[in-house]
């Protein structure tokens, strides 16, 4: 079992009775705390048209977080590339890398990060995404290269910048693509665990080494909710469960505080669906978290765990990341 790196995925969660300004301040405080705990990276995810998530302008928020930290890597987990021009993303991340050298990651995905109507408003063309997405990644690589200096279209800033590209996915399609392109692979196990094992096998077996990444590199994103006791962690987790119930019900309201009895909130069908989606959630005390991570690592042997934590109270969220850090360090 290899030694694990651990990182943070933040969705800039908006909570009931809090402002979006509060959300951004909490995200920065979490990033600063994660930096003190030596988490490897802090990623933000692009979503749109959701009252519970404020990370829509992902590049702008990355700059805010990077400016308030010193050493932790900051990036996207991810930018939904078909929502954007490749040149614009190259310029945005070239700007970020120029401001914060050696600290910026560019994780890219092909999903819309929203509903169909909003995806249309973003200008996506669903007819060509599967063909265009790999081409967009190649465009990014070209814009970032020194060799592009003689091209008619250049990314300034961006050209010559050392910005690692990570392919995100929740299915096997992304695994094949990451393997073929010789790029690191991050899987969304925090909400789409069904294909994770197969995707990792495809990626490892078919990996074609690249100059920048001679070996495959896997990041698994999971939910993590830690507290002093299992019982306390289980109560904190009801905020996560309510968030996923709201997804099922197409109710995009801000995150709700924890409840004493989640069975009063969901019905049996909703419970089964939520628990299936959240299969890879590490919820409990330090010892429980340690055991669950060890079992996960013995099964998947990933290079890095990226923890996302839907906890309502900020202090409890910070404490959860501290407990998870201790659990991983004791493996």
What does this structure look like?
The protein is α/β, with parallel strands linked by helices and 331 residues long. Helices cover 44% and strands 15% of the residues. Strand 5 (165-169), helix 6 (172-181) and strand 6 form a beta-alpha-beta unit.
What would a concise description of this structure say?
The protein is of the alpha/beta class. It has eleven helices and nine strands. It has an eight-stranded parallel barrel with strand order 1-2-3-4-5-6-7-9, surrounded by eight helices.
Helix run count: 11
- What is the 3D shape? globular
H/E topology pattern: EHEHEHEHHEHEHEHHEHEH
Termini Cα gap: 10 Å
With strands numbered from the N-terminus, the spatial order across the biggest sheet is 1-2-3-4-5-6-7-9
Structural class of the helices, strands and pairings? Answer: alpha/beta
Main beta-sheet annotation? 8 strands, parallel, barrel
Radius of gyration: 19 Å
Mean pLDDT: 95
Strand content: 15-25%
Helix content: 40-55%
Low-confidence region ranges: none
Number of strands: 9
């Amino acid at each position: 079992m290899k030694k694990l790196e651990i990182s943070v995925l933040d969705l800039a969660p908006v909570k009931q009775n809090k402002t979006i300004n509060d959300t951004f301040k909490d995200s920065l405080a979490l990033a600063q705390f994660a930096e003190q705990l030596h988490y490897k990276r802090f990623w933000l995810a692009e979503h749109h048209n959701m009252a519970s998530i404020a990370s829509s302008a992902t590049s702008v928020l990355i700059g805010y977080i990077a400016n308030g930290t010193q050493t932790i890597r900051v990036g996207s987990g991810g930018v939904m590339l078909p929502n954007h021009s490749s040149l614009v993303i190259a310029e945005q991340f070239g700007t970020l890398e120029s401001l914060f050298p050696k600290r910026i990651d560019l994780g890219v995905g092909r999903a819309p990060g929203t509903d169909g109507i909003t995806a249309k408003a973003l200008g996506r063309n669903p007819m060509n995404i599967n063909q265009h997405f790999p081409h967009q990644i190649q465009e990014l690589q070209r814009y970032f290269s020194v060799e592009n200096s003689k091209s008619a279209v250049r990314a300034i800033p961006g050209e010559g910048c050392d910005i690692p590209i990570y392919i995100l996915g929740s299915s096997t399609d992304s695994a094949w693509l990451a393997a073929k392109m010789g790029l690191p692979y991050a899987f969304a196990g925090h909400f789409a665990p069904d294909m994770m094992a197969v995707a990792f096998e495809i990626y490892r077996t078919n990996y074609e080494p690249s100059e920048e990444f001679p070996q495959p590199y896997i990041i698994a994103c999971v939910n993590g909710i830690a507290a002093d006791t299992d019982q306390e962690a289980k109560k904190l987790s009801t905020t996560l469960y309510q968030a996923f119930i709201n997804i099922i019900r197409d109710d995009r309201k801000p995150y709700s505080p924890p409840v004493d009895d989640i069975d009063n909130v969901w019905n049996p069908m909703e419970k089964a669906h939520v628990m299936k989606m959240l299969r890879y959630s590490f919820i409990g005390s330090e010892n429980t978290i340690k055991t669950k991570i060890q079992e996960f690592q013995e099964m998947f042997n990933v290079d890095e765990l990226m923890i996302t934590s839907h906890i309502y109270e900020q202090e409890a969220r910070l404490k959860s990341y501290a407990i998870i850090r201790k659990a991983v360090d004791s493996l």
